[in-house]
Design a protein that fits this description.
This protein has helices spanning 3-15, 18-23, 56-74, 141-145; strands spanning 26-31, 34-39, 83-90, 100-109, 113-121, 130-137. By secondary structure, the protein is of the alpha+beta class.
């Protein structure tokens, strides 16, 4: 599958997720190697207005979404793959006034489960805010056909 098709598929997938639209998430990069999403810094994701620190729940949402959509980078046809398990290890707080990026890749695809791993970061992917591993259930390509169309 071409990188342009993967990019189109991941953008379409992200556009169907209302909470991601509200948070302003966007696809930064997508190819067969993985997916990078951007979560723009805003007051909606701040845990404490005085410090401006990003809430951990926003990072969790970013990474669950990034890992989940990264399945579209690894599968030949789009499938709905709900989260079975997600583990996030936080290294440090996200800095105020900077966007947060999430990168995820699928490192193992089985007939029933897809295994992902990734990082959340701001300026440098080698200085992660958090590490994540996730498992996603494969429901088959027919599940994607049943997904509602966006109005």
């Amino acid at each position: 599958m071409s990188d342009s098709l993967i990019l189109e598929r991941t953008q379409r997938f992200l556009s169907l997720l209302r909470h991601c639209q509200v948070l302003g998430m966007s696809v930064e990069r997508a190819n067969s190697q993985g997916l990078t999403l951007r979560l723009p810094y805003s007051e909606m994701i701040v845990s404490d207005r005085e410090s401006g620190l990003v809430h951990g729940g926003a990072i969790t949402t970013l990474m669950d979404t990034t890992c989940g959509i990264s399945t579209a980078c690894a599968l030949p046809e789009l499938e709905i793959c709900p989260t079975l398990d997600l583990r996030i290890d936080y290294m440090h707080s996200a800095e105020p006034n900077h966007d947060v990026f999430g990168f995820a890749e699928c490192y193992r695809v089985t007939p029933t489960v897809i295994f992902t791993r990734g990082v959340a970061y701001q300026r440098d992917i080698n200085e992660p805010i958090a590490h994540v591993v996730g498992a996603f259930m494969r429901m088959g390509k027919s599940s994607a056909a049943k997904a509602p169309e966006r109005p």
